[in-house]
Amino acid sequence: MDKIKTLTYNKESPKTLLELITVLRIYDKYRDDESIRIITADYFCHYHIDKYLHYVDKKGHTDFILNCFFDDSKIVFKKLCGGYSPLNSSYCRFKIYKGIVNDQRLKESFENNSSELKERLDLLKKKFVYGWSIKSRAEYDFTRLHSIIYDGISDEILKYPISGKYNDGSFNKKYYNNSNNNNNNNNNNNNNNNNNNNNNNNNNNNNNNNNNNNNNKNNNNINNNNNYKKFILPDIIIEKIIRDSLWYIDDRMDKVIINDNLLSYGLVCKQFFRVLSKILNNEYFEWKKSIIQFNNDSEFSLIKQPPLYFDYQSIRLIPYSSSIEYVKLLFSRVQSFYIKTDEYDAINYYMKREKKKIPDNDDKENVVYLEAITYRDNIKSPRYLVYPPPMPSLESITIDKYYGLESNYAHLIKHILIKYFKDFKTSKLHINDRFGIKRFSINIQEYHKYLNDKSNIKFIKQVLEYHSNSLEIVEIDCSNTQYIYPNQLEYLKSLIDNQSNNNINWSLSTKNITNNNNLQNIQYLGFSENENENENENENKNENENEIESDNESNGESDSYSFNL
């Protein structure tokens, strides 16, 4: 019997990655239903507004856009293009263009319905090219693409060296600096190789004679070596060797193994592979280059179980093609969650997340400027962040470089630590033994324009209160801001200690050593009891978490979509 699934969302509020994957699986199952395809395209469009390449599955994103472009229904493609810009990235636009040109469906579209194809190409040109003031490039030109498909003319736009990209889609400067030198070096190497071949022929004749003599000596050595007994080191010694060779991230609350060349240890021998697998399946390690592949049934799988650690940056590695069951399983054992905000880039001229992109023509500087401006603005948007799937085993969270410019990061943390944990209790899902997190750490940075006028750190009190009976360690580092006073943190500590059944270990640090006892400062941070009572009353009135999280940031209309499974 088919199950009825209803997905309701507010177009103005950010939604979870799991919901997107759910919609895409419905799309796969009912691809013959035009209404389902239209709904999915609309959802996909709204989900990705203000999103960026570094938090999105690039391949899954491109594949879905290509499917909509070649969809039999023009309504599907128009619905996607209605209010969508391709991740505000010239690199993403380039990959979409490349995918269309190399797709065999392009030739079929020329043959079956060329007028409809021209209309869609013009729409893409208007949306992806003119909208970014790249007026001199010939992307999506109908006549030009026809010549490429039928006359065999090479596409100059596709000659950019995509092999020089980083894992996050950005590009390696060294690759471009060395690309021209490599061409010159190749010519020189060809000449050198000819000379070397002649010398090698002469050397080979001499080496053959020497090898015959050496073989006789080696045979004698082999016979002598066979007299030695085999000796296998116990696993505990191998584990000691591996652990002494591993590197750990040392600037976080939890000890995390750095995932650089881990596989090289496992390839030493079967025993190393087995011991390393045991270590990785029971400890925190980072996964930042590719999606975790785990298989408990295969002796050749280094990772047997889902990971215990999750860095928010890795959310882009989760394929849109994943099943719902796989995504839930992937996050089922996560105990430690780390997030470093991008807020620094919103207020500083030199951005830490450099916006590299493919080489462009005369419009390059304009494109770089436009992308940098939109990136700075969108960091503070409620749609910028991707909400990860639930983590029922979560015990520890570390929030790094938090400025509190807007409320989007605060809402994300509340969604993970309050909304999800409420859902766990409601669904009676098995979670960790204390039904809450044990360790909480946050590093607060200063930007006076925002912190002096308003504060988005009230969520700290809300989170700590909700998890007061499970908390064991709380670290609040305010040493980089002068707007938080020692007495404010001490008041928070006292408030939580009075509610908790545990003896919480607190680590509080402030830059401002003045012990200002002004009650107004306490209320300013949202740490007063009266304010807490008012907030609880408001939250009780709002059963829908979407309304709580929006905090009047958006007043868009809600659409309810029903899918029959």
From TrEMBL:
Region labeled Disordered — which residues?
A: 173-223, 530-565
Q: Quote the biased-composition stretches of kind Low complexity, using this chain's numbering.
A: 177-223
Q: Which InterPro entries match?
A: VIR1_yeast (IPR054776)
Choose any GO biological process term that the UniProt entry carries and state it: positive regulation of transcription by RNA polymerase II
Record field: compositional bias (Acidic residues):
545-556
Name of the featured protein: Uncharacterized protein
